[in-house]
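// run 5 | inverse folding | seed 20
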């Protein structure tokens, strides 16, 4: 037996653990061909059958493959027979096994204390359930630049691709339906390069079967609007997905004109994905004015309250007195501004009759700006509870949120009634 080889009993223990129902993961790291090599195995369920997913990282190059039990047995033998220094970590529901083979070929074995971990083999084909995988999206993915010529998602676009997928998931959770009459009108505020705008169109038409969708993508930048128009034309949807160069404040879709007071909303849904600063507030205000049923907004940078809280820093009265230590640190002040701004937005929407949820719509790896305000019209506006909460928070911080000023009398009538 070579010195780096594992004892037969240890080899058997690894095999038994990997093929047991409580197997969670095995990771082995070593040096191979002068570079760092890492292999991990985990069970995945594909179409209800348990397979083994192997991820190999060879000097930064990642390769992922799924194997059935027979094939992975050969791979496991290679892992066990690996020569030289290495680290092996094997996890099962009952505990961990660590094996370290040193440069001098000493084999060091340690085991965690007995555990009783919760673990469930996740269905790997859930990836197929991503909104952008649930219809033939090849042309869309290529035209917006998410996919390369071979249809693979470009690494540089992965973050935005994930954001759009997760945004569409939230849309799907609303179970959108064909309106009884008229057109399902949507406005994407600050649409930029139209990733979401076009994705939303195909998702609603292809997956939800809503054939009379009209989407306006609005952005103040002429260059992105021209690029978006070209993409819509390339995808043959330029009549259904219309791009308008305008400041949001100046935009009114034709469908909202001439609607009777109290009639069905003319813009069914307003969306915004990282519209800058107060453009998010403008999108929300437009959604309110257009009597939209849904407002889905993932905010971006927020500068509006920064100045005011910056001024408070160092003062010894009111909120500044209690929060001095926090306000002095610019990064904490910035985060507090984000939280306060989104709280005010959510509270204002609630006052105006929207059931509102603030959620993380996508992982923080896809974007640090991963908060979404998800609002659906349908609760009694102007209730004293939400109005009282809003006023208490606003007055504590002695600020006037931009959205309150923007909504003017529409909101003021509820706030005045309370005071
Ligand atoms: C960070 S980009 C996001 C673009 C796109 N929604 C996305 O997620 O890829 C923000 C976009 O909002 C646009 N924008 C910001 N303020 C705006 C305003 N007041 N009116 C119209 N567009 C605005 C910018 O021009 C920019 O294209």
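// decoded
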């Amino acid at each position: 037996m070579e010195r780096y080889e594992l004892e037969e009993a240890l080899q058997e223990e690894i095999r038994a653990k990997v093929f047991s129902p409580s197997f969670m993961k095995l990771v082995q790291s070593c040096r191979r061909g002068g570079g760092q090599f890492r292999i991990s195995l985990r069970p995945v369920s594909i179409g209800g059958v348990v397979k083994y997913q192997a991820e190999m990282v060879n000097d930064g190059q990642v390769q992922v493959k799924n194997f059935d039990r027979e094939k992975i047995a050969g791979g496991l033998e290679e892992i066990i027979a690996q020569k030289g220094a290495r680290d092996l970590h094997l996890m099962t529901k009952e505990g961990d096994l660590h094996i370290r083979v040193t440069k001098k070929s000493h084999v060091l074995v340690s085991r965690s204390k007995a555990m009783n971990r919760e673990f469930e083999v996740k269905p790997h084909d859930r990836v197929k359930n991503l909104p952008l995988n649930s219809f033939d999206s090849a042309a869309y993915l290529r035209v917006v630049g998410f996919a390369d010529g071979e249809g693979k998602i470009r690494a540089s676009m992965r973050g935005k691709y994930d954001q759009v997928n997760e945004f569409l998931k939230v849309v799907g959770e609303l179970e959108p339906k064909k309106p009884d009459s008229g057109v399902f009108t949507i406005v994407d505020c600050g649409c930029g390069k139209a990733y979401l705008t076009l994705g939303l169109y195909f998702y609603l038409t292809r997956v939800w079967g809503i054939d009379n969708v009209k989407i306006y993508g609005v952005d103040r930048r002429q260059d992105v609007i021209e690029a978006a128009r070209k993409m819509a034309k390339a995808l043959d949807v330029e009549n259904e997905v219309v791009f308008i160069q305008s400041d949001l404040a100046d935009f009114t879709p034709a469908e909202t004109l001439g609607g009777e007071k109290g009639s069905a909303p003319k813009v069914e849904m307003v969306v915004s994905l990282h519209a800058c600063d107060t453009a998010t507030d403008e999108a929300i205000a437009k959604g309110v004015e257009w009597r939209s049923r849904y407002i889905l907004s993932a905010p971006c940078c927020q500068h509006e309250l920064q100045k005011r809280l910056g001024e408070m820093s160092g003062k010894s009265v009111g909120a500044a007195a209690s929060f001095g230590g926090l306000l002095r640190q610019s990064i904490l002040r910035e985060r507090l501004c984000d939280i306060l701004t989104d709280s005010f937005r959510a509270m204002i929407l609630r006052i105006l009759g929207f059931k509102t949820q603030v959620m993380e719509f996508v992982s923080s790896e896809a974007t640090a700006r991963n908060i979404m305000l998800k609002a659906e019209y349908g609760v009694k506006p102007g209730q004293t509870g939400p109005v009282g909460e809003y006023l208490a928070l606003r007055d504590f911080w002695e600020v006037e949120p931009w959205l309150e000023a923007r909504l003017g009398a529409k909101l003021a009538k509820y706030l005045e009634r309370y005071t």
